[in-house]
C-alpha cells in the first residue's frame, strides 16, 4: 500500500483542521473569473510549439517566415499558434508593409518565462 495514501486517509479521518482563520484566507483567495483566466493563461504555456515560439521571441522580434524556419513548421501552423498567443495577450504584432512582426507583449511575459525556465532547470 502507498504510504502517502495512508497518511492522507489518516488525516481525513482524524484531522479537524487548523486554527487558521479560514474566513481571512477566503477573503484573500483569487476570485473565480481570475482563476479561470489564469488557468487559461497557463494553458497557453502548455504546448511545446508555443513555448518554442515564446523562446524565440524572447531573443528578438521576428516575422512568421523567420519563426517558420526556426521551428521547421509551415507558416499556417505558426500563424495559428501566434494567433492563439496574441488572443491571450502573450505576443503582439506590428505590421511593416506586408510583413507582420511578432514580439512578446510586455516585460512580464519575459520575466515569467525566464523564471519558469530557470525553475525547470533547478535541481
UniProtKB/TrEMBL annotation:
Residues 30-123 form the HTH arsR-type domain. SMART domains: HTH_ARSR. It comes from the Bacteria. Keywords: DNA-binding, Transcription, Transcription regulation. It holds the Pfam family HTH_5. SUPFAM superfamilies: Winged helix' DNA-binding domain. Signal peptide: none annotated. PANTHER family: ARSENICAL RESISTANCE OPERON REPRESSOR ARSR-RELATED, HTH-TYPE TRANSCRIPTIONAL REPRESSOR CZRA. This is Winged helix-turn-helix transcriptional regulator. It comes from Paenibacillus agricola.
